[in-house]
Amino acid sequence: MQDRPTIKTAIPKGRYQIGDYSATLLSEIESPDARTYRYILAFVPDGQREPRLYVCSESAADPAEPRLCHLRVVSETLSEVVDSDARWADADVFAEQALELGIQALGLSKQQAVKLL
To answer: What order of strands is seen across the sheet that includes strand 21-30?
Structure first.
Protein backbone atom coordinates (compact mmCIF):
# COMPACT_ATOMS: atom_id res chain seq x y z
CA MET A 1 0.00 0.00 0.00
CA GLN A 2 1.79 3.06 -1.33
CA ASP A 3 0.47 5.86 0.92
CA ARG A 4 -0.14 3.76 4.05
CA PRO A 5 0.16 6.03 7.11
CA THR A 6 3.23 5.34 9.23
CA ILE A 7 2.10 5.49 12.83
CA LYS A 8 4.67 5.66 15.64
CA THR A 9 2.12 6.31 18.41
CA ALA A 10 -1.59 7.07 18.55
CA ILE A 11 -4.46 7.07 21.03
CA PRO A 12 -7.50 4.90 20.17
CA LYS A 13 -10.58 7.11 20.43
CA GLY A 14 -13.24 4.65 19.25
CA ARG A 15 -13.81 1.13 17.93
CA TYR A 16 -16.46 -0.16 15.57
CA GLN A 17 -17.51 -3.51 14.11
CA ILE A 18 -18.84 -3.57 10.55
CA GLY A 19 -19.52 -7.06 9.24
CA ASP A 20 -16.19 -8.90 9.05
CA TYR A 21 -14.16 -5.72 9.74
CA SER A 22 -13.19 -3.84 12.84
CA ALA A 23 -12.45 -0.14 12.57
CA THR A 24 -10.39 1.88 15.03
CA LEU A 25 -10.48 5.66 15.28
CA LEU A 26 -7.02 7.01 16.17
CA SER A 27 -6.13 10.48 17.44
CA GLU A 28 -3.01 12.24 18.74
CA ILE A 29 -1.05 10.53 15.99
CA GLU A 30 2.71 10.77 15.91
CA SER A 31 4.09 9.93 12.48
CA PRO A 32 7.30 10.51 10.53
CA ASP A 33 5.20 11.00 7.36
CA ALA A 34 5.17 14.33 5.52
CA ARG A 35 1.43 14.52 6.27
CA THR A 36 0.15 15.66 9.67
CA TYR A 37 -2.70 13.37 10.69
CA ARG A 38 -5.46 14.69 12.93
CA TYR A 39 -7.48 11.44 12.86
CA ILE A 40 -7.26 8.06 11.15
CA LEU A 41 -9.98 5.43 10.89
CA ALA A 42 -8.31 2.10 10.08
CA PHE A 43 -10.37 -0.85 8.77
CA VAL A 44 -8.94 -4.29 9.58
CA PRO A 45 -10.46 -7.58 8.34
CA ASP A 46 -11.28 -9.92 11.25
CA GLY A 47 -8.39 -12.29 11.97
CA GLN A 48 -5.79 -10.04 10.34
CA ARG A 49 -3.37 -7.49 11.78
CA GLU A 50 -2.89 -5.01 8.93
CA PRO A 51 -5.59 -2.54 7.87
CA ARG A 52 -6.98 -2.93 4.37
CA LEU A 53 -8.28 0.67 4.25
CA TYR A 54 -7.52 3.97 5.94
CA VAL A 55 -9.60 7.13 6.00
CA CYS A 56 -7.47 10.05 7.20
CA SER A 57 -8.07 13.60 8.36
CA GLU A 58 -4.88 15.47 7.46
CA SER A 59 -4.04 19.01 8.47
CA ALA A 60 -4.00 21.26 5.41
CA ALA A 61 -1.28 23.40 7.08
CA ASP A 62 -3.02 26.60 5.99
CA PRO A 63 -2.23 29.44 8.44
CA ALA A 64 -5.32 31.33 7.27
CA GLU A 65 -7.52 28.32 8.15
CA PRO A 66 -5.84 26.31 10.94
CA ARG A 67 -8.76 23.83 11.23
CA LEU A 68 -8.85 23.03 7.51
CA CYS A 69 -8.26 19.32 6.91
CA HIS A 70 -8.08 17.06 3.89
CA LEU A 71 -10.16 13.89 3.93
CA ARG A 72 -8.06 11.14 2.29
CA VAL A 73 -8.96 7.53 1.47
CA VAL A 74 -6.01 5.10 1.23
CA SER A 75 -6.19 1.48 0.02
CA GLU A 76 -4.11 -0.88 -2.12
CA THR A 77 -5.38 0.77 -5.30
CA LEU A 78 -6.27 4.28 -4.17
CA SER A 79 -4.85 7.30 -2.38
CA GLU A 80 -7.12 10.23 -2.97
CA VAL A 81 -8.21 13.40 -1.20
CA VAL A 82 -12.00 13.34 -1.48
CA ASP A 83 -12.74 16.61 0.33
CA SER A 84 -11.20 19.54 2.23
CA ASP A 85 -13.14 21.19 5.03
CA ALA A 86 -12.78 22.38 8.63
CA ARG A 87 -15.45 19.79 9.59
CA TRP A 88 -12.82 17.03 9.39
CA ALA A 89 -11.08 18.58 12.42
CA ASP A 90 -14.02 17.39 14.57
CA ALA A 91 -13.60 13.77 15.71
CA ASP A 92 -17.31 12.87 15.69
CA VAL A 93 -18.03 14.44 12.31
CA PHE A 94 -14.90 12.82 10.84
CA ALA A 95 -15.75 9.39 12.29
CA GLU A 96 -19.26 9.45 10.85
CA GLN A 97 -18.04 10.38 7.35
CA ALA A 98 -15.03 8.01 7.54
CA LEU A 99 -17.33 5.10 8.43
CA GLU A 100 -19.56 5.89 5.45
CA LEU A 101 -16.56 6.09 3.09
CA GLY A 102 -15.06 2.87 4.44
CA ILE A 103 -18.34 0.99 4.17
CA GLN A 104 -18.69 2.16 0.56
CA ALA A 105 -15.10 1.39 -0.41
CA LEU A 106 -15.16 -2.09 1.13
CA GLY A 107 -18.59 -3.03 -0.25
CA LEU A 108 -20.16 -3.38 3.19
CA SER A 109 -23.32 -1.40 2.47
CA LYS A 110 -25.56 -4.19 3.81
CA GLN A 111 -23.71 -4.14 7.16
CA GLN A 112 -24.49 -2.01 10.20
CA ALA A 113 -21.64 -0.22 12.00
CA VAL A 114 -21.76 -1.03 15.72
CA LYS A 115 -19.83 1.22 18.11
CA LEU A 116 -17.85 -0.88 20.57
CA LEU A 117 -15.91 1.84 22.43
So the answer is: 79-85, 69-74, 53-59, 37-45, 21-30, 9-18, 113-115
